[in-house]
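Quick start: what a row looks like.
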Amino acid sequence: MADNDGKQPILVPVDFSGHSLAALLTACELAECARQPIIILHVVHDPAEMPGYYSLVTKKKKIAHIDDLAQEAFDLFMQDAIEQNPDNKLLQEAQTRLVVGLPVNRILEMIEITKASMVVMGSQGRTGMKHIMLGSKAEQVVRLCPVPIMIVKEPVKPSK
């Protein structure tokens, strides 16, 4: 699925973290230079993997389907990103997609479905025991990705 001009999009999977925002802004810079559209993707993952995640992100205590909470969190992430970067036209015009499934599998499927030319995604870069126990979705996508991929980390904030 290329955009109206036949240009392949840059796919940006996000998890609402600072690393995702950094990746999204980097993707916007790349897309502007290459005159490509971007598609921002969030995968609603198995709630057993990370219970309570969406309710924490949305900061509201209510009973709702996880898809609805994920969409609300996605909308808030995008709203904050646009408010923090009001001059970023690509960010305002980006397509967004919310899909359900295992993140790595769904990201790889969306690369094929959207005919993405590349993927830009954030990563915390865990090491040691946390990495062994949790693995890295970014690392798995890098190993399996059929198109070029760029991993972005959130810039380190200077300590005061």
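That is the whole record. The chain has a mean pLDDT of 83. Strands lie at 10-13, 38-44, 95-100, 118-122, 149-152.
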